[in-house]
């Protein structure tokens, strides 16, 4: 039995029927050339054959004295967690995205381990898909990406299929760790607590410095209230998911041209798309939108769990010129990079926790619905550059599916794969109407950043264009 840490408990307390707190991912695979008509059915049977379930996939919640603990699930049912679905013919991508939208809006059962995998056959183009969701109290998006990556092969392997739940994915709770003497875990906990306490003086200094920067530095956005915006309405339980791929080499070329980073170009794309969408909705605020950017603090040997800091960046949506917008975004993000560079991970976590407390309290209580610390979450996770396989099926694309909240009705996430940057947009279907129009606006934003002597290339690498 293991007590959930405070951050993981927050994700449980935030959850309501209209606000599921799970992250997910959609993977698109092409069938092998020699695949028979029962290929996907046999794939599902093979997946369900991996019955030696590892932590954290074998844990369920149990409450003691009002506090949530993780305990082993003694009645684990793998058929419940691994499901087989099929699209109606012809299996259009739009139908796949509509299905994922519906599945992502459904709560996970808290009486069971909080994850589900759906293997979906009948996708047009001789393809199938895998949609998986994990509760955020189990792992964050970075952890989920690592787990999913480990279940894929670098070479086609007809008899070598892997599944996430059969891989040991939590370095702190492997079978070997559970056999270790209790004093070893106690020493580890004491060490972590000591590092957090030692970080407090620096955290206090940085919070004071941030208060002064907010008054005197225009590039620092932490203490600025985000403008009122239609993206910050209350949400329903319905979702719309849209996904599309863009050329990563093209984005890298633009980053080099503007002496910027890939993430700067991505933020400029998102800012331009949001500006055009809000103009289309006659809802563009006069003040610039503020984005919250999760920053991973995971190390190479990190297990699962939540280990993420935050950057608050101006999206400069008050600028009509895309080049000026990019320059302002760079200035805003660079301020945070300089600050974090001189801090330890414990100091960064303490600092962002202090700055994020008002936003967290507001999300938990709704005490100030008109006060927003940020307008939208934009997350960019580096992914694999090599071709990957699910057994002998080739991975064509992977699209993140994240979380929306009351007051945060849109989330833009992306992950790189080979030479593509795969965007996944999730929104409340009612609060953010026609959200899929932003896919075209993202493509237009890339065109707008092209130097005048380079011909516009429009969309490149489109994998899924609706929802």
Summarize the model shown.
The chain has 467 residues and is of the alpha+beta class. Helices cover 36% and strands 22% of the residues.
Extended strand count: 15
Which structural class should the secondary elements be placed in? alpha+beta
With strands numbered from the N-terminus, the spatial order across the biggest sheet is: 5-6-7-2-13-12
Please summarize the sheet with the most strands: 6 strands, mixed
Gross geometry? globular
- Using the CA coordinates, give the radius of gyration: 22 Å
CATH architecture of the largest domain: 2-Layer Sandwich
Measure the end-to-end span.
41 Å
Low-confidence stretches: 170-180, 182-200
Quaternary state of the chains:
single chain
- Strand percentage lies at 15-25%
**CATH superfamily (homologous) name of the largest domain:** Nonribosomal peptide synthetase, condensation domain
Domain module tally: 2
Secondary-structure element pattern, one letter each: EHEHEEHEHEEHHHEHHEEHHEEEEEH
Q: Class of the largest domain in CATH?
A: Alpha Beta
Instruction: Determine the fraction of residues in helical runs and give it as a percent range.
Output: 25-40%
Average pLDDT reading: 84
Defining key terms:
467 residues; alpha+beta; Chloramphenicol Acetyltransferase; 2 domains; six-stranded mixed β-sheet; 15 strands
What does this structure look like?
It is a single chain. Strand 5, helix 4 (93-104) and strand 6 (115-123) form a beta-alpha-beta unit. The protein is built from twelve helices and 15 strands. It is α+β, with helices and mostly antiparallel strands. It has two domains: 2-177, Chloramphenicol acetyltransferase-like domain (Chloramphenicol Acetyltransferase); 192-385 and 403-449, Chloramphenicol Acetyltransferase. It has helices at residues 6-14, 39-48, 78-81, 93-104, 141-150, 175-179, 182-216, 248-257, 262-280, 322-341, 345-365, 437-449; strands spanning 2-3, 22-30, 59-64, 67-72, 82-86, 115-123, 127-135, 239-247, 290-296, 308-314, 376-381, 389-390, 393-401, 410-417, 420-428. 36% of the residues lie in helices and 22% in strands. The chain has a six-stranded mixed β-sheet with strand order 5-6-7-2-13-12, with helices on both faces. Strands 8-15-14-11-9-10 form a six-stranded mixed β-sheet, with helices on both faces.
């Amino acid at each position: 039995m293991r007590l959930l840490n405070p951050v993981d408990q927050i994700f449980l307390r935030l959850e309501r029927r209209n606000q599921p707190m799970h992250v997910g991912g959609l993977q698109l695979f092409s069938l092998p050339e020699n695949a028979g008509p029962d290929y996907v059915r046999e794939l599902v049977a093979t997946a369900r054959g991996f019955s030696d379930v590892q932590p954290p996939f074998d844990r369920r919640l149990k409450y003691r004295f009002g506090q949530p603990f993780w305990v082993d699930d003694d009645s684990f049912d793998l058929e419940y967690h691994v499901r087989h679905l099929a699209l109606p013919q012809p299996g259009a991508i739009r139908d796949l995205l509509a299905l994922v939208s519906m599945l992502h809006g459904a709560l996970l059962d808290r009486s069971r381990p909080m994850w589900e995998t759906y293997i979906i056959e009948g996708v047009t183009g001789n393809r199938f898909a895998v949609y998986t969701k994990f509760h955020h109290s189990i792992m964050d998006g970075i952890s989920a990406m690592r787990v999913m990556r480990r279940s894929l092969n670098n070479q086609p392997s007809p008899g070598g299929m892997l599944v996430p739940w059969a891989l040991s994915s939590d370095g702190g709770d492997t079978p070997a760790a559970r056999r270790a003497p209790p004093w070893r875990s106690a020493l580890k906990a004491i060490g972590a607590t000591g590092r957090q306490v030692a970080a407090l003086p620096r955290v206090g200094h940085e919070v004071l410095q941030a208060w002064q920067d907010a008054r005197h530095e225009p590039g620092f956005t932490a203490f600025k209230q985000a403008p009122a915006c239609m993206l910050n309405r209350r949400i329903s339980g319905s979702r719309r998911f849209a996904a599309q791929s863009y050329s990563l080499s093209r984005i890298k070329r633009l980053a080099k041209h503007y002496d910027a980073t890939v993430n700067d170009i991505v933020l400029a794309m998102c800012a331009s798309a949001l500006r055009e969408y809000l103009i289309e909705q006659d809802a563009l605020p006069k003040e610039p939108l503020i984005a919250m950017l999760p920053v991973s603090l995971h190390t190479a040997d990190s297990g699962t769990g939540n280990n993420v800091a935050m950057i608050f960046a101006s999206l400069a949506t008050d600028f009509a010129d895309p080049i000026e917008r990019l320059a302002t975004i760079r200035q805003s993000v660079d301020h945070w990079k300089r600050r974090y560079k001189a801090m330890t991970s414990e100091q960064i976590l303490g600092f962002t926790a202090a700055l994020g407390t008002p936003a967290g309290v507001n999300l938990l209580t709704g005490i100030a619905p008109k006060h927003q610390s940020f307008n939208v979450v934009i997350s960019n996770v580096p992914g694999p550059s090599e071709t990957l396989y699910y057994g002998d099926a080739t991975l064509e694309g992977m699209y993140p599916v994240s979380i929306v909240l009351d007051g945060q009705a849109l989330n833009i996430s992306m992950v790189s794969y080979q030479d593509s940057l795969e965007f996944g947009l999730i929104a409340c279907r009612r609060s953010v109407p026609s959200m899929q129009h932003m896919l075209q606006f993202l493509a237009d934003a890339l065109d707008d950043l092209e130097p005048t002597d380079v011909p516009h290339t429009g969309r490149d690498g489109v994998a899924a264009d609706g929802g």
